[in-house]
Amino acid sequence: MKKKGVDEFPFCVHLVSWEKENVSSEALEAARIACNKYMAKFAGKDAFHLRVRVHPFHVLRINKMLSCAGADRLQTGMRGAFGKPQGTCARVDIGQVLLSVRCKDSNSHHAQEALRRAKFKFPGRQKIIVSRKWGFTKYNRADYLKWKSENRIVPDGVNAKLLGCHGPLANRQPGRAFLRASS
């Protein structure tokens, strides 16, 4: 559930593409449905947050050829072969994340199984990689817990902000990083 804060779902797992290819919008939707259905059934519909990390912006075109009798009189072959739009796809590189799921540690095996089932909806090879980060943040789990105990990290929706050592000197204690006012 995307409205849950950053502290609710510490576990994160990714489905990563292992080939350079085009992934159709239909394949992305089928994988999203398969993953969502499995997680809703076994973990509960409010116990996870699924994010599709690629977007199908690339338009695929087709130059339709006629195959009926007398078609050679109507067609021009490769003259003016710019086709009509047929669908959309996402251009995917090696190592690019396709889907991400964040959940509680107790549902980690369900998230991995959901992504394994979603893998079958895509062409090519994919790998399921368990993240070392805390949820969808860019911070490692150990660092996140340490900074949270020191009051150096501020929740920001599904992400978090690290308070640094920059800013007005009036807000800083000598020899300390900027901290959120403990109120």
Automatic annotation (TrEMBL):
Designated name of the protein: 60S ribosomal protein L10
Homology family: Belongs to the universal ribosomal protein uL16 family.
GO molecular function: structural constituent of ribosome
Gene3D superfamilies: 3.30.60.300, Ribosomal protein L10e/L16
Source superkingdom: Eukaryota
Gene Ontology CC annotation, any one: ribosome
Alphabetically ordered keywords of this record: Ribonucleoprotein, Ribosomal protein
Subunit details: Component of the small ribosomal subunit. Mature ribosomes consist of a small (40S) and a large (60S) subunit. The 40S subunit contains about 33 different proteins and 1 molecule of RNA (18S). The 60S subunit contains about 49 different proteins and 3 molecules of RNA (25S, 5.8S and 5S).
Organism: Hibiscus syriacus (Rose of Sharon)
Signal peptide (residue range): none
NCBIfam families, sorted: PRK04199.1-4
GO biological process: response to UV-B; translation
Any matching Pfam family: Ribosomal_L16
SUPFAM superfamilies xrefs: Ribosomal protein L16p/L10e (SSF54686)
